Amino acid sequence: MKLVVRKRTILLIVFCIILGSFISYKLFDTFKSNNKPWIVANADQPSKKFITKDALIKKIDQKQKLITTEVEISAKATIDNSWGNLSIFKKLQNISFTAKGTYVVDLSNLKSKNISLDLNHNSLTLKIAKPKVDTIEIDDSKTVYETTEKGLLRFGDIELTPQEHETMLENVKKKMNEKMLEKEYFDKALDNSKKSIKSLVNSLINTGNSNYLVNIEFF
Question: What is the pLDDT of residue 2?
């Protein structure tokens, strides 16, 4: 019985490695490209062509991250370009952002020392690091720019430099990250992560006559 469980435990780890390798291969295959010409639409000189060169992948790192939760999150930013506090000098604009956020569990932490077996109760316990916020991707198509509010003596729209725009996006993502880490939402991510990992492990070890209770503990 012990030998069978050890084999299945090893199989689980090997499966994670294979999964990471497969994703790395797909990533490499996606970025392979041939030289292709393209033309800028409505250019003054349409005969001008730009030749794309082969994209080169400098480094490939194997990842073993499992996306367990995905959320849609919104945030509003206000650009205030007012002069002082008088309403006649007011000039501000509200922008609403929508993004997709993901929580992931790093399966590279799934080592043999993190796996314990209780033969008396037919249970398997896995100790894995808590999920983390992995990516926050703003959907530009859902960004809403409200009409600029201007005082009597203010004219024109608010314009940002690329650096200012990037700084604003960084602050928006920071607020979104903080919201995703609030207890209400993080607890949901913990619950989803536990269910996802249990489902994965059950599909590997509970076959045939085997029937183990899988427990997940986060650290």
Answer: 40
Measured CA to CA, the distance from residue 31 to residue 26 in angstroms comes to 9
Measured distance CA(179)–CA(5) in Å, rounded: 41
Asked if residue 31 lies in contact with residue 57, where contact means CB atoms within 8 angstroms, the answer is: yes
184: which residues sit within 8 A by CB, 6+ positions away? none
Cα dist. 177→55, 61, 72, 170, 189 in Å? 32, 25, 12, 10, 13
The answer to whether residue 36 scores a pLDDT higher than 50 is: no
- Per-residue pLDDT at 26: 46
Q: Are strands 144-145 and 149-150 parallel, antiparallel or unpaired?
A: unpaired
Would you state the pLDDT for residue 124? 85
pTM over 0.85: no
- In angstroms and rounded to an integer, the radius of gyration of the C-alpha atoms of the chain is 26
Of residues 61, 62, 60, 65, the one with CA closest to residue 110: 65
Q: What is the pLDDT of residue 103?
A: 94
pLDDT band at 209 (very low <50, low <70, confident <90, very high): low
